[in-house]
Amino acid sequence: MELTKSELEIMNVIWDAGKPLTRGEILELSVDKNWKDNSIHILLNRLLAKGALTEGGFARSGKSYGRLYEATLTGVEYYARNVFNGGAERLEMLFDAMLENPSVNAELIDKFQAKLEAKKASL
User: Fold this and answer.
1) Could you say which of 2, 13, 46, 82 has the lowest number of CB atoms within 10 Å?
2) By the 8 A CB rule, do 15 and 76 touch?
3) 77 part of a folded domain
4) pTM flag (> 0.85)
């Protein structure tokens, strides 16, 4: 599933909140957005159609009730899927970038190595 920049901004708001949100809450929490407030219905409907969001019930919003929008996958799951959709080359680039991170130490490399060896053995 590929998301546009605007769709991804909405998803990041929902992922950061860690709970289903109403349209109004998404607007309130979307501080640095690249889309107009009136576009939110279009963006939410596209995210529903793509399967990135689902309706999570209703919540009181002012004097009325509004739909709750809930992510169908976590941010980590979304980004991991996109890395794998890019093929082996993209995955290798991610691996190289991870190894350049200063927080990668010998202990973490040992954990990665054990997981890679287990995966290799299962192939």
Assistant:
1) 2
2) no
3) no
4) no
Domain extent, residue 33, equals: 5-71
Q: Are residues 51 and 9 in the same domain?
A: yes
How far, in Å, CA of 69 to CA of 123, rounded?
39
**Spatial separation of the C-alpha atoms in residues 11 and 47, rounded to whole Å:** 9
The number of CA neighbours under 13 Å toward the Cβ of 29 is 18
Dihedral through CA 17, CA 54, CA 43, CA 80, nearest 10?
70
Beta-bridge mates of residue 71: 53
For 44-55, what is each residue's pLDDT tens digit? 999 999 999 999
Number of domains in the chain: 2
